[in-house]
Amino acid sequence: MFRAVEAMSRAHALAAAAAARGLTAEQLQRFTSEVGYYRIALDHLTAQLSGPQRDRLRALTDSHDWHTTIAAEDALIAAAPGTSTAGDATSEAAAHVTSGLLELWRAQNAAAGKSAQDAGDRISHGSILAAFAAVAIAVIAVSAALVAADRLARRLVRLRTDTTDLAERRLPALMSRLRRGEQVQIDQEVVRLDPGADEIGDVAAAFNQAQFAAVSAAAAEAATRNGVRAVFVNIAHRSQLVVHRQLEVLDRAEREADDPNYLQTLFALDHLATRARRNAENLIILGGERPARRWRNPVSLFDIVRSAAAETTDYQRMDLTRLPDVRVAGHVVADVVHLLAELMDNATAFSPPQSRVRVDGRAVDGGVRLSVSDQGLGMEPAALAQSNELLAAAPDFGIAALTGDFRLGLFVVAALAGQHGLAVRLTESEYGGISAVVSIPATLLSPAEAAD
Questions:
Q1: Superfamily assignment of 295-447 in CATH?
Q2: Nearest to 45 by CA among 58, 27, 28, 62
Q3: What predicted TM-score, i.e. pTM, was given to this entire model?
Q4: Is residue 296 within 8 Å of residue 444, measured between CB atoms?
Q5: Exposed, middle or buried: residue 411 (CB in 10 Å: 0-12, 13-18, 19+)?
Q6: What is the pLDDT of residues 280-334, one digit of tens each?
Q7: Where do the structural domains in the chain lie, given as residue ranges?
Q8: Are 370 and 360 in contact (CB under 8 A)?
C-alpha cells in the first residue's frame, strides 16, 4: 500500500511539472511507469484486503476524485512530449485520492499492528499456560517420584530390619533350640518375610527360601547329631554298668585275697576299671547327661582331691599339699572329682615322667581355690588363650569337640564347670609349666564346714 501511494505521489509530481511546461519524453516514460505500478499494486491490494479496508478502497476507486485523477493521467500519457496540461482540478483530485490512500494505509497498518498484538498476546498467553502446565506436570512428577522413593525406602528399611532381626535374633535362637534337641515345627517357627510382589518381594522370597533351607538342614543335622549322641550315651551307660559290676567283683576279690602279689594285681585292675568308668562318664557328659554317681552328704575337700588323684594314670606323681578344711556339697562331689581327675591327667600327660604334679588350695573370699601345677614345657600364648576361652564357655560338642587338635579332657572340664558354676582357668605355673586353677564357690561348700 505504502509503495503504491509513493508511486502515485511521484507520478503526480511529474504531472504538476507537465502543467507548467510539459514533460520530456523521458519524464513521460517515468510518469507512465509510476502510474502503471501503483494501479497494478492497488488491483493486487484490492484482492488481498478484507473487511472494512477493502470496502474503503473500493469506495475510493469508485469516487469522483479517483475517476478525475485517472482521466487526467490517461490524457497526459496519451499527449505528446512537451504538451502542457491544466492541472488545478486534477491536482486537487489527486491530492484527495492520495490522502485517502494514506488514511487507508494508516488504518491497514493499525489493523495489522492490532492483529500482530492480538497474535502475540495469544502466543504469550499460550506460552504462559504451557509453562504453568509444564511446571504443574513437573511438580506432580517430582511429588510422585518422592512418594514412590519414600515408599521404596520404607519398604527397604523394613526388609533390612526384618532380615537383620531374623539373622541376628530369631535364627540363632532357633538354632540354639535345635542344638539343645528341642522339637521345632519348621513351618510354624520360621518367620517369612512378605514385603510385596515386586522385585523387592522376589528378594524377600529368595531369603525365605534360603532361611527355610538353612533351618531344615540344621534340623536334620540336629536330629542326626541327637541320634548319634543318644547311641553313644546308651553305649556309655552300658559300659558304665559293666564297669560298676567289675569294680564290685574286684572289691570282693581284694577283701578275700591273701597273696600280696595277687592283691597288687587286683589293685592295678581296680585302678584301670576306675579309669574306664571315668571314660564312660566322659561320653555321658559329652552326650548332655550326667553320670549316675551321687553323694548325699558333704565330703571333705581332701578326700575329693585324693579320690581324683587315685583315678589318674600316674597317681604316684601326685603331691597333695596344704588344702583347706572344708566340705563340698554331696550333689557335686562326683563331678568335682571327675573334673580334678581330668586336670591331673592333663598335668601328668604334658610334663616329664619323672616330674611331680603339685595340688594345693586355699580359702578365698567367696569360696575355695585349688591349683593343679605341673613342670612341663607350658603352652604358647595363643594356645593358652584358646584353652581358657574353651573353659569359660564350652562350645557345642557336635560342632567343636571332634576337631583335629581338640583336647577331650578340657571339653569335659568345661562342661562340668558350666553345670555347677565352677571357674577353671589355665595360667603359667611358678614351676615352669601350667597351673589349672579351679574356683569352687561358697554356695557349693557345706555351711557347717565353710571356714578354713
A1: Histidine kinase-like ATPase, C-terminal domain (3.30.565.10)
A2: 58
A3: 0.55
A4: no
A5: buried
A6: 777 777 776 676 667 888 999 999 999 999 888 888 899 998 899 899 999 999 8
A7: 1-123, 199-280, 295-447
A8: yes
